[in-house]
Amino acid sequence: GEYIGSGTLIHPHHVLTAGHNLYNHKLKEWASSIEFFPGQNGDYLPYGFAQASRLVTFTNWVHNQESTDDLGLLILNRDIGYDTGWHG
Questions:
Q1: At the N or C end, where does the chain have fewer CB atoms within 10 A?
Q2: Among 62, 57, 15, residue whose Cα is nearest residue 35
Q3: What global pTM score does this model have?
């Protein structure tokens, strides 16, 4: 299935997001593919997109679904933040 989530760039190629965007407890599996579309407004994609090349979250989120550890990090395949800017 397809899922839509949100995130914010915190470095040219790092996106802070929620752990539940990366790991699905009901299916007990990691997302197979994530694309990041900064500035998307409907079908308008002013910066194109970047593909997540690595997904990172807390072990405690994956194994115990601990809500305080529901954080995730996308490591992107390109430095799209140089085009968009990012939160430091």
A1: N
A2: 15
A3: 0.92
